[in-house]
User: Fold this.
Amino acid sequence: MRLSWPQHLQASRTLELAGESQQGMALALMGMSLLILAEDLLQSEQAASDSKRQA
Assistant:
């Protein structure tokens, strides 16, 4: 994983505090954060699947 679960949570909590003038940028960053989370979860799932096949 590129980011640990606590790092993903911290990114979300930080972005939710964005002011009204920065909501567009915060939304874009949240989208990127969700994309990274999805990729991390897919990679983790694939690694678990690979280890089960080898067992």
Remarks:
- The chain is about 80% helix and 0% strand.
- The chain has a mean pLDDT of 89.
